[in-house]
Amino acid sequence: MAFDVDAIRDDFPILARMVNGKRIAYLDNAATTQKPAAVLDAMREYYENSNANAHRGGNALAEEATEIYENARKKVARFVGAAPSEIVFTRNTTEALNFAARFCAGQLGAKRILLTEMEHHSNIVNWQLAAKSAGASIGHVKMRSYGKLCNEDVEKQLEKRPGAFSFTHASNVLGTVNDADALCKMAREAGAFSVVDGAQSVPHMKVDVHEMGCDFFAFSAHKMLGPTGLGVLYVKKELADKLEPIFGGGGAIESVMLSGTTFARAPQKFEPGTQDVAGAVGLAAAIEYLEKVGMGAIEKRVEGLHKACIAGLKEVGGVHVHGNGEKTGIISFNVGRLHAHDIAQIASDDGVMLRAGHHCCQPLMKVLGASATARASFYLYNTEEEAQRLVTSVKRAKKVLS
Ligand SMILES: Cc1ncc(COP(=O)(O)O)c(C=O)c1O
Question: How far is the CA of 194 from the centre of ligand 1 (A)?
Fold first, then answer.
């Protein structure tokens, strides 16, 4: 079936927005994606017809809300190849990675943590905090050249026997996709738990956490057409069964006495308090939408847009692209000595929404030798015409700013 981008665009009300008298070209999808009407409708429908407090039963509506929430969990689990009891809802990837760090450095006793130089701050600061309170040390795998992890350094660092190895599946700056299966296997063989940041991979490719062999895997609904405020932490069953909750409260318990508490089974024990049922409904609707279009078709489409955009930028002259984000639709670039923020500002004046800055990756920026980059990131609703508009804006920026 041909990829009908016009029909897809019609599903996203915001894409008709005008900014500065121009129709927006939304190229900031790595930051957050837009939401199709199907997601907005599903959330509205839930609030209008079924809203109650999930897992606080005793009335028909609460039971319905519980069923809706758990059905959403099943859908999420199936989408990433997990069992429902291995799926913990969080607020976002950041919170999920903070949980994973505290599980590993705290309860699982990791005294050395291995990260990489290409991590998002969400996968650096969490470990620094967890390592500090557990008295653990942190090492970092080096990058060989733009966008590639140095495999020899992974091996060398794993010889130091870290208790946990955490890395990004896909870089939000470079778009590079790391070989998560191989890295998890190496971690396992070295006796380290593996924690994978999937914020930029799950929206773009078929992920199967069991096949990958990771222990923890994190991602966010808002980067894959779902709502903000909902994230996911996959916790491998053996670990989910044995780990203790980090936060305690209502809904996560079996029984509470003044002398102590016994906890519910996973995943409920990790989800105290009232949960974001509407968010889970939104994520389930987003998954349905992505599956309807097809993850393979999305991947191909995004690769095509990436190629077209790179070809256009090459013609501008003086554009340096960092890494290769073909599969994730990410293009981070600098133009000569022009400041990335100025490029993004001029593009914004043209209605083209980019991101400029360090992208929450200051250590990576240091490796790249740049204080900031401009970043375009594509998703299924973008068009070749929008890629061309970006190229035209970059040309204009070069002319105005040089
Ligand atoms: C690779 C990566 N990890 C983690 C995050 C954090 O995601 P969130 O802000 O949804 O917690 C992001 C967000 O941009 C990201 O790109």
Answer: 18
Which residue, chain included where needed, has tokens 């709502």? 227
Task: Examine the domain organization and report whether 266 and 348 are in the same domain.
Answer: no
- For 90, half-sphere exposure in the C-beta direction (CA atoms, 13 angstrom radius) is 24
Whole-angstrom distance, CA of residue 364 vs CA of residue 355: 16
Q: Please tell me the distance from the alpha carbon of residue 361 to that of residue 247, in angstroms, as a whole number.
A: 28
Same domain, 307 and 172: no
**End-to-end alpha-carbon separation of the chain, Å?**
45
Ligand 1 center to residue 85 CA distance, Å? Answer: 24
Structure tokens at 35: 């939401």
pLDDT digits (tens, 9 = 90+) for 327-363: 999 999 999 999 999 999 999 999 999 999 999 999 9
Range of the domain at 141: 40-291
Does 328 contact ligand 1 (Cβ within 6 A)? no
356 with 314, same domain: the answer is: yes
For a substitution probing ligand 1, which of 95, 168, 200 has the most ligand atoms within 8 Å of its CB?
Answer: 200
Give residue for tokens 């998954």: 287
Indicate if 281 and 376 belong to the same structural domain.
Answer: no
Asked, for residue 330, whether it belongs to a domain, the answer is: yes
Q: Report the number of distinct structural domains present in the chain.
A: 2
Residue 35, domain member (yes or no): no
Closest approach atom of ligand 1 to CA 94: 11
Tell me, using a 6 A CB cutoff, whether residue 53 lines ligand 1. no
For residue 24, what pLDDT band results from cuts at 50, 70 and 90? very high
For residue 379, give the CATH number of its domain. 3.90.1150.10
Decide: 200 in ligand 1 pocket, CB within 6 A.
yes
User: pLDDT tens-digit profile of 218-227?
Assistant: 999 999 999 9
pTM of this structure: 0.98
231 CA distance to ligand 1 middle (Å):
10
